[in-house]
Amino acid sequence: MNAGETICLRQGTYTNASGWSINSSVDGTSGSPITFRNYPGERATLDTASGTNVNNLTINGDYVRVIGLEITNSSSSPANLDNGQGVSATGTGIKVINCIIHDSTGNGIGVYEPAIDFEAYGNVIYYNGKTPNDGNNYAYALYVQNTGTFTKDFKANALLHNYGPYIVHAYTQGAHLDNLRFYNNASANYTSGGSVWLIGGGDRADNPVIQDNYLYANASRSLDLGGYAGYAGTNNASVTGNWMGGSFNTFAMSTNNVGTNYSNNHIYYDSLINLLKRYRL
User: Fold this and answer.
1) What is the pTM of this model?
2) Which of 40, 164, 205, 279 fits a disulfide with 234 by CB distance 3.0 to 4.6 angstroms?
3) How far, in Å, are 51, 166, 228 from residue 253 at the CA level?
């Protein structure tokens, strides 16, 4: 393929038990990305349909756009582990736009340090981590890390009922959490346990932006900024214009955080059912 080309998948289900991969030889440029998308007006599904623990879609090429695809694992006997991700990206300049990502055995989207200048926009991400694992489930809608001056941006995504205790898991023990930005996302989860959004870990999270999001948590915090005692906290975080609600300690902030801008946020404390009744939603 050449930079600037587009492949449109016609309506139907494309099955591969080994998972789908866009390899490192498929490279666009910043001005002429390579695009994989659904044919306009048609629904194209990438389905692993396998009980093995594999990523449904792995993107290793640079400057690749994936638009409008359904990405799933329809297996009725999913693996016992939680590490087969819906979308895994390792290249530079990758964008995942307007996709439906669901029923992966692991995270909906997992992007770590090797993925540079990544963006996820307008995706619906749900039911990931749906495995017969009887122990702790470590699958989230978004599991993200980042290093360097390039940002990772997550905009206008719907993150709904994934099976791990977090929806957004910006966490590390030995990597980095720099320049992660979240705008206009909506999330809700019904699992109990830790906070729904965690920003923090063993490395200080520098310059996170959490702006104009809608967060609801059942029996947990909506946002944990900086993480638990012993975590490194955040530096220069901006938390503005968000709606955060739940039935337990809606917002928590680490004492290790420095330089936080927390302004124009709305905190509510209620059950989701009461909120729906109150506003007739």
Assistant:
1) 0.92
2) 205
3) 39, 16, 9
Whether 143 is covered by a domain: the verdict is no
Domain of residue 75: give its range: 1-130
Is the pLDDT score of 168 beyond 90?
Answer: yes
Q: Is residue 135 part of a domain?
A: no
- Two structure tokens written together for 113: 């340090």
| Cβ–Cβ < 8 Å for 105, 157 | no
Nearest to residue 56, comparing CAs of 40, 67, 44, 45? 45
Q: What is the pLDDT of residue 230?
A: 82
Kindly state the tokens that stand for 169: 């898991």
Confidence of residue 25 (pLDDT cuts 50, 70, 90): confident
**What is d(CA 67, CA 83) in angstroms, rounded to the nearest whole number?**
23
Contact between 262 and 239 under an 8 Å Cβ cutoff? The reply is: yes
- Cα 150 → chain centroid: 18
